[in-house]
């Protein structure tokens, strides 16, 4: 008896789900890689080659941060909200006002960030940082 | 005249190459992210309102609560940080330094890092903070 060979049937490996797996892996890598924080307060440091600019003492507004609670502006004690308002008023009068921010070395970093944040929020563009 | 409908022809969209494209993309993302792999330290970052997201090339300086500095994937001194920052800045002067310090560390540690980076010639520094809501 002659056995007939069937030519119609073809064997195939189903690859459709491979792309699903690959795309799932891509999404996984994209999502997990975006967890690292790159947000923050931007500071431009002075160039060491550039000569320091002299500013008259009267033109400088000095803000001092001592300990957890004490903030002074030109020697007068101020609260955080008050500082923001006073600095905003200062900027309205003169956009180029210079603020010297003196921070005590033992002050907690979060407190220092809070004050730098206030200064930036008030619109101060010329900020100088100094440690006490 | 009667039109005969052909039933034999099947329309199929070939999806075999989709997997190739996906794997190529996967390999691309994996390779391009290798340069940014940095050992992450579990720190409680401070919070601020005026944060901006940095998109340019950067390197991290981690400051732990104990006052240790980590950069380039290892622990180092401030002198070593100067060398590391100078080396990084030479290849790309626009490189930013991202300072990641625990919110409870004394400001002195951050200030020392800022002074070191300034001496090394770094112009742009980001004090990494979470966005205050």
Largest interface: A-B, 42 and 55 residues
Largest sheet: spatial strand order of chain B: 5-4-3-6-7
With helices defined by DSSP (H or I, 4 residues minimum), what is the helix count of chain A? 3
Nearest-integer average pLDDT of chain B? 82
Strand content of chain B: 15-25%
Strand content of chain A: 15-25%
Shape call of chain B: elongated
Strand order of the largest sheet of chain A: 4-3-2-5-6
How many strands, what sense, and barrel or not for the largest sheet of chain B? Answer: 5 strands, mixed
Helix fraction of chain B by DSSP (H/I, runs of at least 4): 25-40%
> Number of DSSP strands of chain A?
6
Whole-number mean pLDDT of chain A: 81
Distance between the termini of chain B: 75 Å
CA gyration radius of chain A, whole angstroms: 31 Å
What portion of residues of chain A is helical? 25-40%
Structural class computed from helices and strand pairing of chain B? alpha/beta
The ordered string of helix (H) and strand (E) elements of chain B is HEEEEEHEHEE
Low-pLDDT stretches of chain B are none
Offer a quick outline of the entry.
Chain A is α/β, with parallel strands linked by helices and 132 residues long. Chain A contains three helices and six strands.
Description:
- With 132 residues, chain A is an alpha/beta fold.
- Chain A has helices at 16-33, 80-93, 109-121, and strands spanning 39-44, 60-66, 70-73, 76-77, 98-103, 126-131.
- Chain A has a 5-stranded mixed beta sheet with strand order 4-3-2-5-6, covered by helices on one side.
- In chain A, strand 2 (60-66) and strand 3 form a beta hairpin.
- In chain A, helix 2 runs parallel beside helix 3.
- By secondary structure, chain B is α/β, with parallel strands linked by helices.
- In chain B, 35% of the residues lie in helices and 22% in strands.
- Chain B has a 5-stranded mixed beta sheet with strand order 5-4-3-6-7, covered by helices on one side. A two-stranded parallel ribbon of chain B has the order 1-8.
- The longest helix of chain B is centred in the N-terminal third of the chain and has 19 residues, at 16-34.
- The N and C termini of chain B lie far apart (75 Å).
- The mean pLDDT of chain B is 82.
- The chains are: A alpha/beta (132), B alpha/beta (133).
- At the A-B interface, helix 1, strand 1 and helix 3 of A face helix 1, strand 1, strand 2, strand 6 and helix 3 of B.
């Amino acid at each position: 008896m002659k056995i007939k060979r069937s030519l119609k049937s073809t064997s195939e490996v189903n690859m459709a789900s491979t792309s699903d797996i690959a795309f799932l892996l891509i999404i996984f890598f994209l999502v997990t890689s975006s967890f690292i924080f790159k947000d923050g307060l931007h500071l431009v440091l002075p160039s060491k080659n550039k000569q320091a600019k002299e500013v008259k003492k009267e033109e400088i507004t000095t803000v001092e941060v001592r300990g957890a609670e004490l903030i002074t502006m030109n020697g007068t004690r101020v609260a955080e909200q008050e500082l923001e308002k006073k600095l905003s008023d200062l900027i309205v009068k003169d956009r180029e006002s210079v603020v010297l921010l003196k921070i005590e070395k033992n002050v907690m970093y979060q407190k220092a960030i809070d004050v730098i944040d206030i200064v930036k929020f008030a619109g101060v563009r010329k900020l100088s940082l100094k440690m006490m | 005249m009667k039109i005969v409908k052909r039933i034999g022809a099947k329309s199929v969209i070939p999806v075999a190459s989709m997997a190739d494209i996906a794997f190529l993309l996967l390999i691309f993302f994996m390779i391009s992210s290798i340069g940014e792999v940095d050992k992450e330290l579990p720190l409680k970052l401070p919070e601020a309102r005026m944060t901006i997201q940095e998109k340019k090339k950067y390197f991290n300086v981690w400051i732990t609560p104990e006052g240790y500095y980590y950069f380039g994937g290892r622990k180092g001194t401030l002198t070593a940080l100067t060398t590391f920052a100078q080396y990084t800045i030479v290849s790309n002067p626009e490189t930013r330094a991202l300072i990641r310090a625990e919110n409870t560390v004394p400001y002195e540690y951050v200030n020392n890092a800022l002074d070191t980076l300034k001496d090394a010639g770094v112009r742009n520094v980001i004090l990494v903070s979470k966005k205050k809501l």
